[in-house]
Design goal:
19 helices, alpha+beta
């Protein structure tokens, strides 16, 4: 028999009754039932119940065993009584009577329990990650991650892509975040960088004639952490293709991701239609460039209904250049209680409040006010049909702008009795973020968002340049290496009107993919950087390898990168990316388990010609 096991803890069933077996694993749970010890023995594959009574030669030893001890047992497979069968596990029809025991690794008192679903502080979980990872949900998340990556690889190979590896130690490159720098021992005072992405290398591969490339690539960015972003490193499905248009990239990556979500989505619906929405429309309709289309709410501009109206705040606001009023429809949200709750939400976001109108059946109170009669008289008139019933608009805004304007707003938004609308105004960039968050809250609270679904959308036509409102300086808004739509001619006009062949894929409110058709022509690249204030010499200095390569017959090319961690987070139905990463950092970019970052030894610093300046 094998030194440690003849079977895993998920293999045994009724056909093994009477067999002598050997199992190894961790003590998941110990139960003492009147002198009979029951132990759930767990390994990576599952759980087997083993038992021991005073007839066993190792009963006294088994009494000392505690949770998470690693043990080996030999024993005989027995059938469970019919009323004791556990249908929830593959081994639920049998149990193993222990004849021999070896403690492979005893465990100290546990800082966190593996059995059960107790909640522990994240700092504890990350410090003792090796224990945290023993929990069933974490084991399943990591298996899911591995299976998703394997599926991605197979689907890329099936489309005639090959996987190539790019360097981990390279030159610093502006990808939009801070680099992790690596000092050079052989070249004192100079530094390498860990790659923020394989961007330049994969483009150089296209110049080298490798038509299709992909890689499950590690990327390193010194970023502030968020729930959906690691502060140090992450993995992406990175791909690049030659002689392609933007639509070719979509047609290539879409079936890969759709297949992965169908395979691992747990039966949730995966949208077949992935609309292409311009960046401008996404900001208007959803308040974000990563919209959650499971929520049907679409915001609209309603400025004309407030110009010259009795609501002075909006009317005066609209006299300023670049301002507008947007409405967030809220079907079924037509109650004062809900409207007050959303107004409070706006105040929590740092705004004075949020205007609202809601539509309801005409009440005796409102008829009484309108006609100057008592509520009782109004009730009688409504009942007798002497006063026309129907719908009325309520709320402070409705009173200020009057029935004609409120009715026009209702018709534009397609709302009815029991519905509401919320309003924000000003320069769009100042309130779009809050509007987007309000849309999300409204969709969630009113039950409008379909949670059992994956909804995708391509966001396209990103602006290449932006203007700093304070300095008036032009700079790149997004990826500086995207090909401008219209090429060189587009760069001769208004820079703020230039759109790039750049695109993101959004799913359920998260950005999953980002990519572009690349600017492969040096003269167009120099012109784009010139508009942003970078001279040709600086471009050659910072991106010399790529600029040099593009002078030797560069093909048109483009690609994208899909965030593996974020995709697995969605598939696992987790809200924090650290739940699907094996050994993540904490919120302060610290590895509490390995004590990183750590202070270097003086000898290491001398070898690298470095000196640490103490913090004041």
């Amino acid at each position: 028999m094998h030194a440690f096991r003849s079977h895993t803890c998920a293999e045994l069933n009724k056909s093994n009754v009477g067999d002598t077996v050997r199992l190894s694993g961790w003590v998941h749970r110990v139960r003492d039932h009147g002198g009979i010890l029951f132990i759930d023995l767990r390994d990576h594959y599952g759980i087997t119940q083993v038992l021991c009574d005073p007839d066993s030669p190792v009963f006294a030893e088994m009494e000392n065993v505690r949770s998470e001890w690693c043990i080996r047992i030999d024993g005989n497979v027995k059938a469970r009584d019919a009323d004791l069968v556990n249908d929830k596990i593959p081994t639920g029809e049998i149990e193993v009577f222990v004849r021999d025991l070896e403690v492979l690794g005893a465990a100290n008192e546990l800082p966190l329990m593996v059995f059960g679903d107790q909640e522990y502080p994240e700092e504890t979980r990350l410090k003792y990650r090796f224990l945290d990872l023993r929990r069933e949900v974490m084991q399943e998340n990591m298996k899911l991650r591995s299976d998703v990556v394997a599926s991605m690889r197979k689907r890329m190979w099936d489309q005639d892509f090959r996987e190539y590896q790019t360097p981990i130690i390279t030159a610093s490159s502006p990808e939009g975040a801070r680099d992790f720098l690596v000092p050079s021992r052989l070249h004192p005072g100079k530094f390498y960088a860990l790659p923020q992405a394989p961007q330049q290398f994969k483009q150089l591969m296209m110049v080298a004639g490798f038509d299709k490339y992909f890689q499950i690539a590690p990327c390193f960015r010194d970023e502030d952490p968020r729930a959906d972003r690691s502060p140090t490193d992450f993995y992406q499905l990175d791909m690049e293709m030659s002689f392609v248009t933007q639509q070719d990239v979509f047609d290539t990556i879409q079936p890969v991701l759709k297949g992965v979500f169908e395979e691992f989505g747990g039966g949730r619906k995966v949208d077949q239609d992935w609309p292409q929405i311009s960046y401008k429309d996404a900001a208007l309709w959803y308040g974000t460039d990563k919209p959650d289309l499971r929520n049907p709410i679409k915001m609209q501009v309603v400025s004309d209904h407030f110009r010259g109206s009795g609501f002075a705040i909006f009317a005066k606001l609209l006299e300023q250049d670049g301002t507008e009023i947007r409405a967030i429809p809220a079907p079924t949200g037509g109650s004062r209680k809900f409207c007050d709750r959303m107004n409070k939400f706006a105040q929590e976001q740092g705004l004075p409040g949020m205007g609202y109108i809601f539509w309801r059946e005409k009440t005796a109170d409102s008829v009484a006010q309108e006609l100057g009669i008592s509520v009782k008289e109004a009730q009688a008139k409504l009942k007798a049909g002497e006063v026309e019933g129907g719908m009325e608009a309520a709320g402070p805004l409705a009173k200020n702008i009057g029935p004609e304007r409120t009715e026009a707003i209702r018709q534009q938004l397609g709302l009815d009795v029991g519905d509401a609308a919320f309003f924000l105004g000003g320069k769009p960039k100042a309130f779009e973020g809050v509007a987007g968050r309000a849309r999300t809250v409204i969709g969630d609270e009113l039950g409008l968002t379909d949670k059992d679904r994956f909804a995708f959308a391509w966001i396209v036509d990103f602006p290449i340049f932006q203007m700093d409102d304070e300095t008036g300086k032009l700079d790149f808004d997004h990826n500086p290496f995207s090909m401008p739509q219209g090429g060189m001619e587009a760069l001769k006009g208004d820079p703020l009107a230039v759109r790039g062949y750049q695109y993101d894929l959004a799913c359920n409110g998260y950005e999953l993919v980002s990519g572009a058709i690349r600017n492969h022509k040096p003269e167009i690249m120099f012109k784009a950087f010139e508009l942003a204030g970078y001279g040709e010499d600086e471009v050659r200095k910072r991106f010399g390898g790529m600029v040099n390569a593009f002078q030797y017959g560069a093909p048109p090319h483009g690609g994208c990168a899909a965030g593996v961690d974020r995709i697995v987070m969605l598939l696992a139905d987790e809200e924090n990316i650290r739940e699907v990463m094996m050994f993540p950092m904490n919120q302060r970019a610290e590895d509490l388990m390995m004590n990183a970052p750590s202070e270097p030894q003086n000898e290491q610093l001398r070898e690298l010609h470095l000196r640490v300046i103490p913090q004041e």
